[in-house]
Amino acid sequence: MIYDLTVYIKICPVKGDHIMKIYSTSFKSTMMIFALIGAMVIGACPALSSAEQAKERKTITVQGSSSITAAPTIAYVSIGVTTFNKNAATAQAENAVKMDRVYKTLASLGIKKDKIKTVNYNISPRYDYKNNVASLAGYNVVNSISVTVEALKKVSDVLDMTVKEGVNQSSSIAFGVTDEERDRLYLQALSQAVVNAKEKANTIASAAGIAISKPANIIEGSSSHFVQPNFRAMDMAKMTAEAAPTPISEGELTIEASVTVIYDY
User: Fold this and answer.
1) Nearest partner of 79 among 176, 151, 164, judged by Cα
2) In 129-156, which positions are buried (b, 16+ CB within 10 angstroms) versus exposed (e)?
3) Residue 244 is assigned to a structural domain of this protein
4) Which of 50, 80, 111, 240 has the fewest CB atoms within 10 Å around its CB?
5) What residue numbers bound the domain in which 199 lies?
6) Hey, what's the torsion of the CAs at 179, 181, 185, 186, to 10 degrees?
7) Cα pseudo-dihedral 143, 239, 173, 156, rounded to 10
């Protein structure tokens, strides 16, 4: 377009004013075209650059894990009293008397009321069946509690002494640690999991003949995984018949942590 315009100026010099007007208009159009092309090029450059960067980025992704074992510091003992009577109110009153003795026994062992929680209280009818005909025999009253025992040496006493006071419902024991102890142990395991991931990444990089940089991304795994050593059911009838203290073995707890780490190289 500029070429044709230049030729036209040379042929018709007497029409300079007209020619200059045409040239001025053409120049503006030309500049607009160049500006549009420039904008298209500039707009495309960042996208191209990002695509190139994504294509050129090289990473190593590794999983790190760790576990820490610890001795339990608390126990959760589940015990309960079941009573039966033809009269619901009588069954309930008998249950209350026995549970009152249980609470007093726990208090004598130094266990405060805020460490005792009712987990179930139920009154239900019991039926006898004869010739496919049901007849009301009476009522069962069940009162179950969970006792937090912070001195593990007292667990056997809690079981044995409460059985003597009327506890006859199947009991169980779970061991654990306090929330503060669990958080502290988990943070230790989490730190070790990061170190484990770094060791794996360095091993892979060394074998591949490359060098890794600082972690580009670190993702924490699920929250602290708490593995209890045991959860045992107790035979109430057997405990009542035995004179010797109930043996308790708390074992060990396991706290686990994991991370996913991405390294650039």
Assistant:
1) 164
2) eeeeeeeeeebbbbbbbbbebeeeebbe
3) no
4) 50
5) 59-69+182-225+260-264
6) 10
7) 110
Q: Which of 27-31, 106-110, 140-144, 175-179 has the lowest mean pLDDT?
A: 27-31
Verify that 40 and 124 share a domain, yes or no. Answer: no
Please give the structure tokens belonging to residue 174: 């779970």
Number of domains making up the chain: 3
Token pair of 29, please? 């159009």
Residue 114's H or E segment, with its range, is none
Q: At what angle do helices 16-56 and 2-11 cross, to 10 degrees?
A: 160
Judgement on whether residues 81 and 168 belong to the same structural domain of the protein:
yes
Query: Which pLDDT value is given to residue 220?
Result: 96
pTM above 0.70, yes or no: no
Q: Cα(248)–Cα(236) distance, rounded to whole angstroms?
A: 15
Give the separation between CA 146 and CA 118, rounded to whole angstroms. 6
> Do 91 and 142 have their domain in common?
yes
Kindly report the length of the chain: 265
Structure tokens at 183: 């958080």
